[in-house]
């Protein structure tokens, strides 16, 4: 049995959005990605001798469009696949109307280009996974854990036998061959206290490998988590101070982007662009600003 990283080639670029293929008696995908990149997913499966028709299970870390938008389109073709999701995410898979309305406000006319056609998932195919729940994929056994921080409906999947932790966006964004871990903090659910607890949970699983949707497999799990904790605090402190300064929004966003640019200063322009595509700085600012506005009493210090 293997775990393969498939590159969805988002907007034609490498290393932005990954899907993980878990081979075995009942093949499974973790986060099938956008509907717009289904041809790349199918090509990636073919490289490993598989087709979408072989897939029996789809495990969703969360329902953000870059992770889950293809689910309905896949189920329309292969209606027997079982889809695993957090209970807070399930209603939006079954009826994506509200999710699409809020995404349209964020992405406007770019919706179809970015994410493709987002179809509802038949309710009888949706399995709600509780905290600590077990998922049987034939010869594989996966445990699921509530993992709020990036999103309220985020799950982390862990396979004890291989030490594989599918962390979605909870340990940020990191590109292959780099050590740098970038925060991914879009609106509306960012919760820094919950996030620290989720990082504790992941660290305590003592994973051999972290599988990040953005992007790939990393074997230095504890170092990665420690760096992520630190950088998440640094970015959130930058946003907190920006809000407290009373500067206008554009200035504050520019200040966060400056901080990110300084952190990425040894990289090429195209490498910096990839980080921005995988986790846009202005969205990270908006998510952290929303968090701090809810905790307004801390803004004056
Ligand atoms: Zn996300």
Structural class: alpha/beta
So, the CATH homologous superfamily of the largest domain? Ribonuclease Z/Hydroxyacylglutathione hydrolase-like
Number of helices: 11
- The CATH architecture name of the largest domain reads 4-Layer Sandwich
Bound molecules: zinc ion
Domain tally: 2
- The topology string of helices and strands comes to EEEHEHHEHHHEEEEEHEEHHHH
Roughly how much helix do the residues carry, as a percent range? Answer: 25-40%
Uncertain ranges: none
Please give the order of strands in the largest beta sheet. 1-2-3-4-5-6
Q: How would you describe this protein?
A:
The protein is an alpha/beta fold. It has two domains: 3-228, Metallo-beta-lactamase, Chain A (4-Layer Sandwich), CATH 3.60.15; 238-298, no CATH class. 40% of the residues lie in helices and 17% in strands. The chain has helices at 38-47, 65-68, 71-77, 90-94, 97-107, 111-115, 192-204, 221-245, 249-263, 269-278, 281-294, and strands at 3-7, 18-22, 28-30, 57-59, 82-85, 126-128, 134-137, 140-146, 155-159, 164-168, 209-212, 216-218. The strands form two sheets. A six-stranded mixed sheet has the order 1-2-3-4-5-6. The protein has a six-stranded mixed sheet with strand order 7-8-9-10-11-12, with no helix packed on it. A hairpin with a 4-residue loop joins β9 (155-159) and β10 (164-168). α8 (221-245) crosses α11 (281-294). The chain is globular, with a radius of gyration of 18 Å. The model has no long low-confidence stretch (mean pLDDT 95). Zinc ion (ZN) is lined by residues 62, 64, 150-151, 169.
